[in-house]
Specification:
The protein is an alpha+beta fold. The chain has two domains: 193 residues, Porin chaperone SurA, peptide-binding domain (Triger factor/SurA peptide-binding fold, Orthogonal Bundle), CATH 1.10.4030; 105 residues, Roll (Chitinase A, domain 3). Helices cover 55% and strands 13% of the residues. Strands 4-3-6-5 form a four-stranded antiparallel sheet. Strands 2-1-7 form a three-stranded antiparallel sheet. α1 crosses α5 and α2 crosses α4.
Length: 333
């Protein structure tokens, strides 16, 4: 069993529907679907739909609410139907997970999530689940995984050309963030300052630019006059990524060449001068460094396509009797 499946199984258990709604809000239970003689009830669908269904029911009465309710039921139906069909195939093929395999799966979940036995019990109890119920759910997920993996694993093929093609068309996905190492001098302008005060601070800034142009050290001047962050260390803000500064300052900072000073920039708190100490480009690593990650991603994408195809095959072969109008083809949703 893959680590991702184990983690998903744990999250699935912890994301189980919480307390049911008051009984006066629950719809009258009835048979919703019969699949190969197996009954799926309306209450099963509303429970699986969970919050999506009850958000729909909280909407004002009318077409929009009915459309949202039907959509929630259909989504739940697709999930429950797929589960029932896969579970039936598991039973027909005699696929079974041993207690030893299940113990190893639970241990792996605990290890990867840094959970002790007590912590796992507490997390499950908070969602109304016992260890026994969780193990039963995990066993079912494990068996379903074995079935589907066996059906599709020989169909998943990712070639070296696939990997290279994905890399070339998704370079930005692998590139790091462009960064600039910035120093800053801030000359504060008090909120609500009068025009003459604004002009005085700006004039101080222009004098500061002249001193920098004459060769004075930015760091020394920042220690002397800056009223902004990092003043004691020469205005050093360290390495800054795009998206972490106010947009007006970011445009200026990333336009500077290493060693270049900006002009005066009016910011919310006052007049600012920036210096770019150094820059790091957003360069993608060689394909060799990321090929395994790409291969796994493409393999997972193919597997999902083939999984859906296999489920569709099971649906076509099944005898399905829909008993409620919400699930009939053509119903708005």
């Amino acid at each position: 069993m893959t680590p991702n499946l184990l983690l998903l199984a744990l999250l699935s258990a912890l994301a189980a529907p919480g307390n049911p709604p008051p009984s006066d809000r629950r719809p009258l239970d009835r048979v919703a679907v019969i699949v190969n003689g197996d009954v799926i009830t309306l209450s099963e669908l509303t429970e699986r739909a969970g919050a999506e269904y009850w958000r729909a029911m909280d909407m004002p009465a009318g077409p929009a609410r009915e459309q949202a309710r039907v959509k929630a039921l259909r989504s739940a139906y697709d999930l429950v139907l797929a589960e029932r069909l896969v579970e039936a195939e598991v039973k027909n093929l005699g696929i079974d997970v041993s207690d030893a395999q299940l113990d190893a799966a639970v241990d792996d979940v605990k290890k990867r999530n840094n959970l002790s036995d007590d912590m796992l019990k507490q997390a499950l109890a908070a969602e109304g689940l016992t260890i026994a119920a969780y193990r039963a759910r995990l066993r079912k997920d494990f068996e379903n995984h074995l079935l589907i993996s066996g059906k599709i694993q020989n169909r998943v093929k990712v070639t070296d050309d696939d990997v290279k093609g994905y890399y070339q068309s998704h370079l930005s996905e692998f590139a790091g963030d462009e960064q600039v190492r910035i120093r800053l001098i801030l000359l504060q302008v008090p909120a609500g300052a009068r025009p003459e005060e604004e002009a005085r601070v700006k004039a101080t800034g222009e004098t500061l630019l002249a001193r920098l142009a004459a060769g004075e050290d930015f760091s020394d001047l920042a220690k002397q006059v800056s009223q902004g962050p990092g003043a004691a260390s020469g205005g050093d803000l360290g390495w800054v990524k795009k998206g972490t500064m106010p947009i007006d300052l970011e445009r200026v900072a990333f336009a500077l060449a290493p060693g270049q000073n900006s002009g005066l920039v009016r910011a919310k708190t006052g007049w600012i001068v920036l210096k770019a100490e150094d820059k790091r480009s957003a360069k993608a690593p060689p394909v060799e460094d990321v090929k395994d990650r790409i291969r796994e991603k493409l393999g997972n994408q193919q597997a999902e396509v083939y999984r859906k195809q296999y489920i569709d095959e099971l649906k076509r072969e099944a005898v399905i009797e829909i008993k409620i109008p919400e699930l009939q083809p053509g119903t708005a949703g």
